[in-house]
Amino acid sequence: MFTQSQSAKILSKNVPNFPQQLLVLGTGWNELLTDANIETEIDYQQLFGVKATVPGHQGKLVIATLNQTRVAAMVGRLHMYEGFSAHQATLPIRVFAEAGVSQLLVTAASGALNPKYKVGDFVILNDLLTLFLAIDSPLRGPQFLDTSQLFDVKMRQILITIAAKTHLSFQQGCYAYYHGPNFETPTDKIALRTLGADVVGMSTVPEVLQARWLGIKVAAVALVTNLAFVKHDHKEVLMESEKAADKMVKLLGKYVKSSAELK
């Protein structure tokens, strides 16, 4: 893996004018770019010196214009269960922050712990359960982060308004981090639900903490691809993400244009 300074130099040569909006496109969310005007694509191996290894994660940075809005999109992410530390997995966030990103939208697939949630629901996140990342935080040094309100109110409201007006099934809830690559045991799921989590997944939390630590405004939305208390596998996650592709495009396409107007 390259150092931050190495990656920053490579990025500045390829994208001298980096967009202010960054999207992290999790499993199944990359359909957003199908009709976008692609300006630049850089493979993670070229930019960071590593490959994305998870099915559904292409592992590249895309600069594109979507809905008349220029954005940067991480098509896939680096997960800790691939062998990266939390600090390594969030290298892209630090590099893009150095390049000038001020807004981040994180997307993910997730399993529903809340019995009221259904497969296909969008969950606009209002909090995170970070306890199980505590032993390997992406943050370094005595710069203490206030996590009382991780997600930007205005950015969240844009997502809520779009979902409501376009009649998308959505919830608001808390996402719990789980390291993986194994799925949670039945007792794990009971414990997470008891602690207040509504959905669970193997990403999102490191990126959000790192971004907030760097002063970037953040919003996040997870798609429920499986019910956590029902037996499932990664193929099912991919399948349900594909089913929801049109709805994902509708939500994020409208979001990037509206959020570009935020100050």
Written description of the protein model:
With 263 residues, the chain is α/β, with parallel strands linked by helices. It is built from nine helices and nine strands. It has helices spanning 4-14, 44-48, 86-89, 91-99, 153-165, 186-194, 205-213, 234-243, 245-259, and strands spanning 21-25, 37-43, 60-66, 69-75, 103-112, 122-129, 170-177, 199-201, 217-227. It has a five-stranded mixed β-barrel with strand order 5-8-7-6-9. β7, α6 (186-194) and β8 (199-201) form a beta-alpha-beta unit. α1 (4-14) crosses α4 (91-99) and α5 crosses α9. The longest helix is centred in the last third of the chain and has 15 residues, at 245-259. The N and C termini lie far apart (34 Å). The model has no long low-confidence stretch (mean pLDDT 93).
User: Which residues form runs of ≥5 with pLDDT under 50?
Assistant: none
- Round the mean pLDDT to the nearest integer and report it: 93
The side-by-side strand order for the widest beta sheet comes to 5-8-7-6-9
Strand content: 25-35%
- Total number of strands: 9
Work out the oligomeric state of the chains in this entry.
single chain
- SSE arrangement, N to C: HEEHEEHHEEHEHEHEHH
Count of DSSP H/I helices:
9
What is the makeup of the main sheet? 5 strands, mixed, barrel
* Termini separation: 34 Å
* Fraction in helix: 25-40%
The radius of gyration computed from the alpha-carbon positions, rounded to a whole number of angstroms, is: 17 Å
Structural class assignment:
alpha/beta
Overall body shape: globular
